[in-house]
Write a structure and sequence with these properties.
The chain is mainly alpha-helical. The chain has a domain of about 150 residues: Cytochrome c-like domain (Cytochrome Bc1 Complex, Chain D, domain 2), CATH 1.10.760.10. About 45% of the residues lie in helices and about 5% in strands. It contains nine helices and four strands; from the N terminus they run H-H-H-E-E-H-H-H-H-E-E-H-H. A two-stranded antiparallel sheet has the order 1-2. Strand 3 and strand 4 form a beta hairpin. Helix 2 packs across helix 8. The longest helix is centred in the last third of the chain and has 29 residues. It is extended. It binds heme C. The site of heme C has 22 residues, from helix 6.
Length: about 280
């Protein structure tokens, strides 16, 4: 008996020492991550007034807004950014009818093959085609953009922290450098060909400012202010990244409802099964 107990104790002590041994270097060498200078320029993302329609547990798509956002993407962003994971037929989810989607697809030129010579050409898009890339390859994209690469936007709101608010902020972040920040980092400068943007991780971004008042003429007559366009294109890019976002939230509610019902039923059947039993007399 005592030998067994001793064995267990020794085992515990040895494992304890091993655990400490593995943890100690980490504890002693821990240093908080160093914050690069440009942190001084970074602030929290801004949000549209009242938030996005799809925010929160009861969030919904604003279909008119998604359609406006698509218009901004088509008329502005698509000059440099692809949307390779989205097909034209997906636009039906934004409330376009089938003939409208067909017409919309046909208004884009997608890569094709000349039926006679077999050479690469372009042809009008079909609903089953995916959005075409504005450049044939990355080298061409970089050559046209001061060696920066305009990323595909299909998943961008998922690929960045607080993605929707980030894209919304980025589109409107081409402000002046705050003199107080400049005082903290006097060596800061924006090289030629780049633009100061306080929301971009590198502070200086290769994308020129995009949104100017009345840049697009909205089909639904909404006034095209930069805030409006930023909000609309962000909503559209949130949809491209997660088309099932609203459905997911709604499913959550029905799942909770079902679980509550199942709990009530389980409780009632428990009552029913034990109804005939009397507690033992003490
Ligand atoms: C003239 C070409 C051009 C147009 C038009 C353009 N962009 Fe860009 N965009 C760029 C380039 C270049 C980059 C890469 C910037 C960098 O790496 O410094 C970029 C980067 C981005 C990024 C990624 C930032 C990050 O965190 O990496 C987002 C988001 C973006 N653009 C959104 C948009 C939206 C929305 C529009 C339309 C309203 C748009 N862009 C129009 C050239 C463009």
């Amino acid at each position: 008996m005592t030998i067994r107990l001793g064995g267990i104790l020794v085992g515990l002590i040895i494992s304890g020492i091993l655990v400490l041994w593995s943890l100690l270097p980490g504890i002693f060498n821990y240093a908080p991550p160093e914050r690069p200078d440009y942190y001084a320029f970074q602030e929290k993302n801004i949000q549209p007034e009242g938030g996005f329609s799809f925010d929160g547990p009861l969030g919904r798509w604003d279909y008119a807004q998604l359609q406006r956002g698509y218009q901004v993407y088509k008329e502005v962003c698509s000059a440099c950014h692809s949307l390779k994971f989205v097909a034209f037929r997906n636009l039906e989810q934004l409330g376009y009818t089938e003939p409208e989607v067909r017409a919309e697809a046909a208004s884009w030129q997608v890569p094709g093959i000349d039926p006679v010579t077999g050479e690469a050409t372009t042809r009008p898009g079909e609903p089953t085609d995916y959005f075409p890339s504005p450049y044939p390859n990355e080298v061409a994209a970089r050559a046209a953009n001061n060696n920066a690469y305009p990323p595909d936007l299909s998943l961008i709101t998922k690929a960045r922290k607080d993605g929707s608010n980030y894209v919304y902020s980025l589109m409107q972040g081409y402000n002046e450098v705050d003199p107080a920040d400049l005082a903290k980092s006097p060596e800061f400068e924006t090289p030629a060909g780049l633009y100061f943007n306080e929301y971009f991780y590198n502070i200086n971004i290769a994308m020129p400012p995009q949104l100017y008042p009345d840049l697009v003429t909205y089909a639904d007559g909404m006034e095209a202010t930069p805030e409006q366009m930023a909000q609309d294109v962000t909503a559209f890019l949130t949809w491209t990244a997660e088309p099932s976002l609203v459905k997911r939230k709604q499913t959550g509610w029905s799942v909770i409802g079902f679980l509550l019902l199942a709990t009530a039923l389980a409780f009632l059947s428990y009552k029913q099964i034990w109804a005939g039993m009397k507690p033992k007399k003490k």
